[in-house]
Amino acid sequence: MKEYFFLQYKMLNRKMIDFGIPLLVAYTLIPIVFILLSKYLFSKTPFASYIFLLLALGIISKTSETKRNDFLKSIFNTRNYLTLRIVENLIWSAPFSIFLIYKKQFLFALALASLSVFTALLNFSITTNFTIPTPFGKKPFEFTVGFRKTFFVYPIAYFLTCMSIMTNNFNLGIFSMILIGLICISYYSKPEHSFFVWNFSLSTKAFLFEKIKTSLKYFTLLSLPITVGLSVFFPEEIIILIGFFVLCNVYLATLVLAKYSAYPHEMNLPQGILIVFSLMFPPILIGIIPYFYSQSVKNLNPLLDDSN
């Protein structure tokens, strides 16, 4: 089992290096960012412990993929497999459990540890041909694929919106909108094969416009229950609601352009730094968006005919 965890550690390091992040920087910044975001969450809503629990379980669920676990079962005997799965789940949930203990939420920390163990004991080898339907038709694949991988997040976001209405906590509702925005943004983290770009048979500018238009339309569709609910029950906050909705759309469009500014490679460290700075100081988007657009046009021109 030691070899398995060492291999996972090496793979994680390689991913961060490929992304362009020095390991010292990554292992320093990630805990700091986690703590700052966690403190912000707990300062904004009394339901932070529930959100924390759901987020941790969402991450743990990634280790329960059927083919992955079937492969582990073929390598380890039953006892070692269960031990490995329990330890793995506890490792992934450890940052959340430690922060819950820091906030003196001992029952939630205990519940998270118990659920981490319990999910490792479940039988994940059941297979099914059922395909999760999506409302995205035959449009570009990012939302179709991404939605099927993260569909469980949307009921959580809508539940948080209901709780924000019931408790008269507008900030919690805004958090649920931002949560959906972040999930939609994650759909554009991986570049597709060049064939799927060429297959559009559009000019570069038309291709980028189509990609941005699709992303904004589907984000609007997915966030519609939140937008309508908050606008009905918090009419006095309508300006703030519109502001956050527009900001989510702007960042989504920015990530679409950032994806193709690095195409056919994944986004690198300089692009990541620019995006982080824009989160801290949104006005710099005025300069970042044209830069990403110009780089995207340059990278896509060899694949798309601008004479169309």
How would you briefly describe this protein structure?
The protein is mainly alpha-helical and 308 residues long. It folds into two domains: 2-121, no CATH class; 141-300, no CATH class.
Oligomer: single chain
How many domains, as an integer?
2
Low-confidence stretches: 124-130
Provide the helix percentage. Answer: over 70%
What is the β-strand count? 0
The best one-word shape is: globular
**Count of alpha and pi helical runs:** 14
Structural class by secondary-structure content: mainly alpha
Distance between the termini: 56 Å
Mean pLDDT: 81
Q: How much β-strand is present in the residues?
A: under 5%
Rounded to an integer in angstroms, the radius of gyration calculated over CA atoms is 21 Å
Order of helices and strands: HHHHHHHHHHHHHH
Biggest beta sheet summary: none
Question: How is this structure best described in words?
Answer:
The chain has 308 residues and is mostly helical. The chain has 2 domains: 2-121, no CATH class; 141-300, no CATH class. It has 14 helices and no strands. The protein has helices spanning 2-19, 23-44, 48-61, 66-75, 78-102, 106-121, 141-150, 153-166, 170-186, 194-198, 204-233, 238-261, 269-280, 285-300. Helix 9 runs antiparallel to helix 11. It is globular.
